[in-house]
What we know:
The complex is a heterodimer.
Chain A lengths: L1 H27 L9 E6 L3 H18 L2 E6 L3 H10 L6 E4 L2 H9 L13 H7 L2 H6 L1 E2 L2 E2 L2 E7 L2 E4 L1 H7 L7 H13 L5 E2 L9 H14 L2 H8 L8 H10 L11 H7 L2 H9 L7 E3 L3 H10 L10 E4 L11 E10 L4 H10 L2 H8 L19 H12 L3 E3 L1 H4 L4 H14 L4 H12 L4
Parallel strand pairs in A: 1-2, 1-3, 8-9, 11-12
Antiparallel strand pairs in A: 3-11, 4-5, 6-11, 7-9, 7-10
Helix pairs in contact in A: 2-16, 9-11, 9-19, 13-14, 19-20
Chain B lengths: L9 E2 L2 E2 L5 H32 L17 H8 L15 H27 L5 H9 L6 H12 L7 H9 L12 H30 L2 H9 L4 H12 L1 H16 L3 H6 L11 H11 L3 H32 L1
Antiparallel strand pairs in B: 1-2
Helix pairs in contact in B: 1-13, 3-7, 3-10, 4-7, 5-7, 7-10, 10-13, 12-13
Amino acid sequence: MKRRSWLAALAVGILACAIAAIAAYSAQAKPDTKKADEIEVLSLWGGSEQAAFLKVTAAFTKATGIKVKYTSARDFIPDVRTRIAAGNPPDIGILPRPGYIATLASQGALKPLSSLGLSNAYMQGQYSAGWLKLGSAGGKLYGVPAKANSKSVIWYRPDSFKKYKFKVPKTWAQLLALTKAYKAKGLVPWSVGAGPQQSQWTLTDWFENIYARTAGPAKYQRLFTGKLPFTDPSVANAARIMTQIINNKYVLNGIQGVLGQSFVGGITDVFGPKPKAQLYFEGGFVGGIATQQVNKNLKPGKTIADFPWPTIKASLDHPIVGAADFAAAFKDSPEVRKFLKYISTGAAGSIWVSTNAVISPNKKVPAKAYPSVLSRAEAHQLATAKTFVFDGSDLLPGAFGDTWGFALQDVIQKPGNIKSILSTFQNKIKGQF
Amino acid sequence: MPVEPAPPLREGGQRIRQWSKRESYEGIAFVLPALIVLGIFLIYPAYFTIRLAFYEGDFRFNFFHYIGIDNFKELLTNDPDFLDLSKFPPGGALINNLRWVIFYIGLSLTIGLALAVLAVRVRYERAVKTAIFVPMAIAATAVGVIWLFVYSPDPDIGILNAVLHGADGGFKPIAWLGRPSFVNYALIFAYVWASVGFVMVVLTAAIKGIPADVMEAARVDGAGEWAIFRRIMLPMLSLPLSVVTIWLFINVIKVFDIIYVMTGGGPGTSSRVIAFTMYEETFHNGRPGYGAAVAVIMLVLIAPVMILNVRRFRSERVVA
């Protein structure tokens, strides 16, 4: 009896040691269990945007036999950070923020494209210099501009415009007049979704369009690259102009409604089966989400359409604020090289734009590849923009794009405190560029 | 049920017999697996985190750039998102967590106790208890999603606004999560909903454990129901109540998931709590040292309660 219990104890002890050894070993070993002919691509799209991307990867798998495992991470920065720290990054990340590409590149986490068989000359043949500059850091090119969107469009319901005989506004004064006219009809003019599920970024896009139109593209560039402080009077001015529309009078459920509504929820408020508001501002991708995800009965041109962001200062015209997602490699392998090469071709771009979800920054994608009037107009707007500026919050380093969104959430709640909110933000971001 | 080996008995302050050497080796062998697991998954990470809190840390969580207690100084004096005493009522994650402690524990205990007392009196006790206990079995993430719908400012989706709108036609929908002054309480209530079932189940079991003759004796002596509740039930429930309170306390200091799902700490930073700040600083803002400092503060807050709990259990055993 005694002896048996001794043995049992010994067995348990050995077992525990074995478990500990395995745990220690697997912590050491590279967790590289996936098959060689599969790559993992991480990005933040879900819903219709994800479906569109999967169509692009399906064509790649068909041509090469390499499987693509798509991982969706809406809150992608923490995801990427943890995986890098654990030594297990995805093969490829499609990152929406040039500012974050620069951060990752400076940490040595990304592979330059030239080392992956995509020469600078080849890339220049596919993309214009402006896009390539955004995908570069420290003089090296890291990101393939995968998809783009204009963020200088405002979405409206043509049927409602027709009913009340409203015209598309060309200036900020006309936009305010339109807002007031809707209000006078007893309708809620705007819906803004800038609350739950990390939707504060929609406010940063409001600000950017106003700032580019009131301070000009040169100052815009300096502000978002750390050369002009956020305490500059031009910033407070643009924030104040933003609150001319985003206030308790003109937005659905007031400011608390803005902070309680998500980005997609806001689209539903205007284009859902039961519209509660009339106008919505966000980028070109709203079209795809509205028609494919929110309400399949929408008719582009009849019940959903967009107009360009109006001018505020005549001399500054209407610069286009745009955003793009860049495919960058965390690892090097023949499969990764093939995928990046594929994603940079006109053929991949054409498949992607055929889904109506995105615009391709690729020069080789012809206009006829765009299937709907909405996306064709957006592509035209991007291609013909006299002045183009990149989404400023995406240029901010690390996660400051989010912090800036939080600051703007404060601004709309306390328009009287704009100055102190901006100086608090400036203190946080000082020295981070 | 397996019979637990009896603890070494004392008689007149002396053990019946000393453990043999062999037995003590055996004891070590039996404890070893647990020790190894604890060492790898608890003690080492705790040591690592505490050490990291005194560094700036880099993106690979290396001990990079020793800065002493600067992280703590910054957290407690210069980070309005963590502790802001400059306004009234004070704000910041630490204060929000205090709100959670007061309201979450208070509400869970009151509602749970009330339900327990009432549940034992009804005939369909089991059905009632099951219904109230079900939320406990739902993952916190799902609880968050459910309550996102409940709180939606759109009366076609949000049941809370729909009910209020139904009661009063002129009612304007409220975005419960969109108001910095409401958001913490809205979150707390959702979490109470998910925890109250546990409190109720533990307490009903305890109530049933109260000897019936004590209650009968009280009734014979003419005590009213309220007096029985106050003078007999409450004192006899003090042990389970304190255990549940400690469980709730630990739950509330580490609350994270429901906030992550429902508000992401927003609007702005108004619904952040300690654990959320740790996540945000470490993984979002890429400041592992600073995040570790937040974790250490969390540990410091929880440790005394844990010690109290363990002591209490020990003393109970001696009494028993």
